[in-house]
Amino acid sequence: MRIPLLELIQKSTEELRSQGLKESVIRNHRAIWWKYYGFQRNEKVFSAASAKRFLKARADTAFEKTGKRSISSEFLRAMNMLSKSAGSETSWRNSDFADSGPVKKQNKGSRRKLKLNDRLARKLDEGF
Length: 128
What we know:
mainly alpha
């Protein structure tokens, strides 16, 4: 089943609210989901493969900055929840990305795209 990402983000947000979580936690999850939305190039539907590529890209970015390949627990929680909301059995841990191979150096254009995606995520979240 292919679930449109906008619909999935809304459904997951409502689920978090129904659990009575703090608004700051919900905003943090939504910011991560919007980054994933911006990361998607063509089809804006959830897939475990594209979510894994997104998390791998985060691990590669961490490696470039710190020399250690890791993903923040917030990113893992948010993406695991999105996966669960989509009905997928897939769930990720930091160890899934620890040995993800050599990192390609990002050029300035790639960094610019990531910054644009972050701005897009903030704007979408403000208007959602």
